[in-house]
Design a protein that fits this description.
By secondary structure, this protein is an alpha+beta fold. The protein has a single domain, classed as Nuclear Transport Factor 2, Chain: A, CATH 3.10.450. 26% of the residues lie in helices and 36% in strands. It is built from 3 helices and 5 strands, in the order ααβαββββ. The longest helix is centred in the first third of the chain and has 21 residues. The termini are far apart.
């Protein structure tokens, strides 16, 4: 099999779309374990770890238990998300950054509400099994202009 060049943007855009679709599908499943399966917990150099900064929490999450705990609460809101704007940065042969804005429709106290958020995902292809996983995820509400 031919090795993919890191500069092949169409290849990376396809991988980005596939990975985000997988993450969105896991959210729609309502199963926090399926979402947590998409994050990396083991394939790190000494001193490195997962960094997850969730939208609706002030915590820094760095392990599977924390990811599952966060998504138990977030998935209870029955989120459906869509990308509003996005960008791609290629970080080598096995990693890329995907950032931008997404909107989530969630169940709130008074019915459906839309949460507007910024996001950055860093995806890396695992040395262990060749599966793409999230090694960093930051999501925060878009500030309201004053």
């Amino acid at each position: 099999m031919k090795k993919q060049k890191t500069t092949d943007v169409l290849f990376w855009e396809k991988i980005l779309q596939e990975n985000f679709a997988c993450w969105a599908k896991a959210l729609l499943s309502g199963d926090p374990q399926k979402v947590a399966d998409l994050y990396e917990y083991e394939d790190y150099a000494p001193g490195e770890s997962l960094v997850f900064l969730p939208t609706m929490s002030g915590e820094i999450v760095q392990n599977r238990a924390g990811v599952e705990k966060y998504f138990i609460h977030f998935l209870a809101k029955k989120p459906t998300g869509k990308i509003v704007r996005e960008g791609l940065q290629i970080l080598g042969d096995r990693a890329f950054s995907h950032g931008g804005h997404y909107d989530f429709e969630v169940e709130g106290k008074n019915g459906k509400e839309t949460l507007k958020a910024r996001h950055t995902f860093i995806w890396r292809k695992s040395n262990r099994d060749g599966i793409w996983r999230i090694i960093q995820h930051h999501s925060s509400f878009v500030p309201i202009a004053k």
